[in-house]
Every structure is written in C-alpha cells, then in structure tokens.
Write a structure and sequence with these properties.
The chain has 2 domains: 174 residues, Flavin prenyltransferase-like (Rossmann fold, 3-Layer(aba) Sandwich), CATH 3.40.50; 189 residues, Rossmann fold, CATH 3.40.50.10300. Helices cover 34% and strands 24% of the residues. It contains 14 helices and 19 strands. It is elongated. It has 401 residues and is α/β, with parallel strands linked by helices. The strands form 5 sheets. Strands 12-11-8-13-16-17-18-19 form an 8-stranded mixed beta sheet, with helices on both faces. Strands 2-1-3-4-5 form a 5-stranded parallel beta sheet, with helices on both faces. The structure holds cytidine-5'-monophosphate. The site of cytidine-5'-monophosphate (C5P) has 14 residues, from helix 12 and strand 16. Cytidine-5'-monophosphate binds next to helix 12 and strand 16. It catalyses: (R)-4'-phosphopantothenate + L-cysteine + CTP = N-[(R)-4-phosphopantothenoyl]-L-cysteine + CMP + diphosphate + H(+); N-[(R)-4-phosphopantothenoyl]-L-cysteine + H(+) = (R)-4'-phosphopantetheine + CO2. InterPro entries: CoaB-like_sf, CoaBC, DNA/pantothenate-metab_flavo_C, Flavin_trans-like, Flavoprotein. Its EC number is 4.1.1.36, 6.3.2.5. Pathway: Cofactor biosynthesis; coenzyme A biosynthesis; CoA from (R)-pantothenate: step 3/5; Cofactor biosynthesis; coenzyme A biosynthesis; CoA from (R)-pantothenate: step 2/5.
Length: 401
C-alpha cells in the first residue's frame, strides 16, 4: 500500500448482484483494501444466495447493506448518503436482471436507489450465461447504460459456470481492480505515448542454448503499469519473461537484442513517443554464430566467439523520430553514480537511472535507484518495484513538459 497508488484513499461502494460469480466478490474487496481503498458493500437479495453477509463483514469490518427498508441500516447511513459517500460504484457481478433494472432506473431495491442517487463514476462487471449476455434485450440495456455513462468491465469469453463456453465470464478480480485503478487514476499523462523496454534478452547459440541474464522484467513491467495508471498510451517491448501484461498496456514479445531494436524502431516509425524508458537488460554481446540444430556435447567449442550487439539507446537517440525524453538504466554493484550516469548520457539518454544490484535490482521484488539529469540527482529509497516506478515517473514530470 502506498500514497501514490491511484486507489489509495478512494471510497468504493461494491454492489454484489445475483450471479454465481459473486463468490469472487470478497476477493475484489480484499484486493481493493490491499491497495488502500475504503470499501463498503451492498449485497442484493440474489447476491446473498451466493456469498454470505458474514464473509463480507469479516473482511470489510462492516456488515454489508442489504435492505432499503431496514430501519437500523438506514439510521446508520441512509441510502442517499451512502451513494454520495462513494467516489465510485463498482457493481461486480451484475446479472442480466441487474442490468435491466439499472437501465430502466428502477428504484425498488437498495442497489437501484443508490445507482439513481449517485452522480459518480459507475463500473459494471457483468457475469451471466452467454445466451443471456448476447440476447438483444440485454444488449439494449448495455447500450442504454453506456449512453448514460456507465463503464463496462468485461465480460470475457471463456468457460462459464453453467458448463457452457462463450462470452459472459466475469473479469478476474485482479483485472477488475487494475482497470479501476486506470479509470480512477489522475489521468495527467493522457495523450502521452510511452515506450518501455523490459526483461532480459536471449541470444541463441542453438535451439536449446544461449546467453541470457537474470533480469525478471518486474521493474520494466511496473514502469509500464505506472505510466498506464497515469493515463498514458503504453507500448511494452518485453524480452523473454513470464509476467502478465499490465492492464491497459500493449505488449510485444521479443527474444534477442536485435529483435528488440527492430520492434522499437518499428514502433517509433509509427507515431512519435514522448518517453522511452529503456529498462531492458540488453545483452551487450551475442554468439558470433548460431546453429539451427542443437549441437552435441563434444561439438561445443571451449571458447565462444562473441560479437557486439547494437546499442538500442544509441540507435533510438540517432533515430529521426527520437522520443522527447530517453531514460536509460544501469545496474551495477556499488555503482559510482557520476561515472555510470556519464556513460548513459554519452549514449544519448537525457536521464540516467542507476540501480545498485545489491538493492535487488535484478530479479528481486524491491529496488532503489538514483536518477541523474543535467546537474541534478535524486535518490529514491528501497521500496517495491511498483512503488519505485510511480515515484520515478513523478520525478520525470519536469523532463516531459
Ligand atoms: O552500457 P550499459 O549496458 O550499462 O547500459 C544500460 C542501458 O543501455 C539500459 O538502459 C539498457 O536498456 C541499454 N542498452 C541498450 N542496448 C544495449 C545494451 C544496453 O540500449 N545493447
């Protein structure tokens, strides 16, 4: 949890409708809380068939609101105040029946009255059988609700609880929360285009062997997520790593340094980028030759001739569509910041970010770094890679205007 998380301190009213997917709603609640959001729950009568009030009370520390006409519940906070308390309404899951009632503005239950009384953003996360989702009546309600300003999260296609396959599956709790963070984020980088390289590269020797490094990609992926949270359009060019793509981020997977350079130059030829975060741990060298067939043990030479890879930062700097700001990263053991920064500036970087390998830069979940640009420098202390990414992007604000 940290103050720069777009969900930190946000007040979310979680409305739980009547769908089997309601069993995942407590997980949504937990994930929102973990990111510092304040959550209150409203459980519909049908929702209460799938998840118990006690579960929600145990997790949120407060009994969920269930009944529009419960004198005790209304005395604690009436439904109009409850609607206005929330920064956002998250209706997850919402059933076909819930969508129909909301589209018509029916106010016969607590969810309906809250939806009418609130003027804040509303996010609807449908979950139902595919035939019900695709039915023209449901689609009419969806179109109406979109017109009224509701934002839909999903549904996705996949296996459904009823045993059939199709569109109607609720988006995963983690992706719902990530999407909410994008929607409720500051949006101050909207209109900006950010290119991020992440992960290691793999320089093949044959189909099974090659040269790689221990970069996990976590810091680069966190930078992509942090830029998306601020509303930027983000392209992540990732070397081989098994991390999920952050919500709202476009991804291109590559293998070698030369693949990475080609993907980056292709992206730059498309439309100009404001920022290039060259976070990938690109191999400086590759085997001089690679074989399409796996060599036998005895065929592997004792020494391996290497050739230099192109330098991606230098190539991007020399490119006619050079991004407005280039940030390069160095990971060294107990680095001398001035020497390391000068090396990156010489390649064309505007900002140098120096990581100390002893602070966990490679492979760990936490990191610390020093930024250096012009005469200025800034230390960002050890913290989670996501938290560090958010702080780093804030520090870059003056370089982008
Ligand atoms: O010179 P050094 O490898 O320490 O520089 C690291 C920085 O340069 C990183 O930003 C990395 O992404 C980038 N790099 C590059 N092309 C290479 C090697 C490193 O762009 N071939």
């Amino acid at each position: 949890m940290n103050g720069m998380d777009p969900l930190h301190g946000k007040r979310i009213l979680l409305l739980i409708g009547g769908s089997i997917a309601a069993y995942k709603s407590p997980e949504i609640l937990r994930l929102l809380q973990a990111r510092g959001a304040r959550v209150r729950c409203v459980l519909s009568t049908a929702g209460a068939r799938f998840v118990t009030p006690l579960t929600l009370q145990a997790l949120s520390g407060e009994a969920p609101r269930q009944d529009l006409f419960a004198a005790e519940e209304e005395a604690a906070m009436d439904h109009i105040r409850l609607a206005r308390w929330a920064d956002a309404l998250l209706y997850a899951p919402i059933s076909a029946n819930g969508l129909a009632r909301l589209a018509l503005g029916l106010a016969e239950d607590l969810a309906g009255t809250i939806a009418l009384a609130s003027r804040n953003p509303r996010f609807l996360v449908p979950a139902m059988n595919w035939a019900m989702w695709e039915h023209p009546a449901t689609q009419r309600h969806v179109a109406q609700l979109r017109d009224d300003g509701a934002v839909f999260i999903g549904p996705e296609a996949g296996d459904l609880a009823c045993g059939e396959t199709g569109s109607g599956r609720m988006v995963s709790p983690a992706d719902i929360v990530a999407r909410l963070a994008l929607e409720l984020g500051p949006g101050d980088w909207r209109g900006r285009r950010v290119l991020v390289s992440a992960g290691p590269t793999w320089e093949a020797l044959d189909p099974a062997r090659g040269l790689g490094n221990r970069a996990s990609g976590r810091q680069g992926f966190a930078l992509a997520q942090a830029a998306a949270e601020r509303g930027a359009e983000v392209l992540l060019v990732a070397g081989p790593c098994a991390l999920p793509t952050p919500v709202g981020v476009q991804r291109r997977d590559v293998e070698s340094a030369r693949d990475m350079l080609a993907a980056i130059l292709e992206a730059l030829g498309d439309r100009p980028y404001d920022l290039f975060l060259a976070n990938a741990a690109v191999a400086d060298h590759r085997p001089a030759s690679a074989s399409a067939i796996k060599g036998r043990k005895g065929e592997i030479p004792d020494s391996l001739p290497l050739v230099a890879n192109p330098d991606i930062v230098a190539s991007v700097h020399a490119c006619p569509q050079r991004p407005h700001c280039i940030v390069a990263f160095a990971a060294e053991t107990r680095p001398d910041v001035t020497t390391a920064a000068r090396k990156l500036w010489r390649k064309g970087a505007d900002v140098a970010v120096i990581n100390d390998l002893e602070a966990g830069a490679m492979g760990g979940t936490e990191n610390a770094c020093t930024l250096a640009w012009g005469e200025q420098s800034l230390n960002l202390p050890r913290q989670s890679k996501l938290s560090l990414a958010r702080a780093l992007l804030r520090a870059l604000d003056p370089c982008l205007s």
